[in-house]
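Researcher: Please translate sequence to structure tokens.
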Amino acid sequence: MPRQTRSAPGGWVYHVINRAVARLPLFRKEADYAAFERVMLEAYEKHPTRILTWCLMRNHWHFVVWPQQDDELTAFFRWLTHTHVMRWHVAHKTVGCGSLYQGRFKSFPIQRDDHFLTVCRYVERNALTANLVDRAENWRWSGLWVRNNKNCPANALLSDWPVDPPHNWLTLLNKPMSEKEVERVKTSIKRNRPFGSEQWQKQTAARLGLTASLRKEGRPKKNVEQPAIVN
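Model: Translation complete:
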């Protein structure tokens, strides 16, 4: 049975990711994570958007967001990354030393049903997958931790989810995902492919100009002419 979807304004939910250039560390110490969290709060004040969860990792970060306007996603993450880069270079005395991120953030839309929960599960157990903690909820720099610690200032960033999580959400987070689920999410990250049912993927890709993301990887086979047979 499909999980219940909340009645709320429309718009696509997105997974958003960005990585450090050459996979160098974005966060070297706890102070770096805390500084990024402060930038998140400022970005939210300047360009509010519905943030559903996130996870900050050593050399990359994940967000799941639900913008209401077409320009919200770009405005929020452009300000977030630009401000973070400037302050990071000042803090680490590397002003003028080049890029911090690989480039512009990457994103893909998510169907608002159990597919949404699959992506959130992937994001919220990211630190556990990387063996940084023994339980997903113990990773301090995530929307999961903030949601479970109501006094944290970053709690102001969190919006209600469009899909009700199951009552055993923490149990699910602390169980490994199937290889198929993980591979599907990773493919969407790599190719900016909409994440949902096959029909929803096709419709969404067509509306957002992402049809190329649905093509199979690899070059098409060339039609090689066979030499004529001489009797």
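Researcher: Any highlights?
Model: Confidence is low (pLDDT under 50) at residues 1-8, 224-231.
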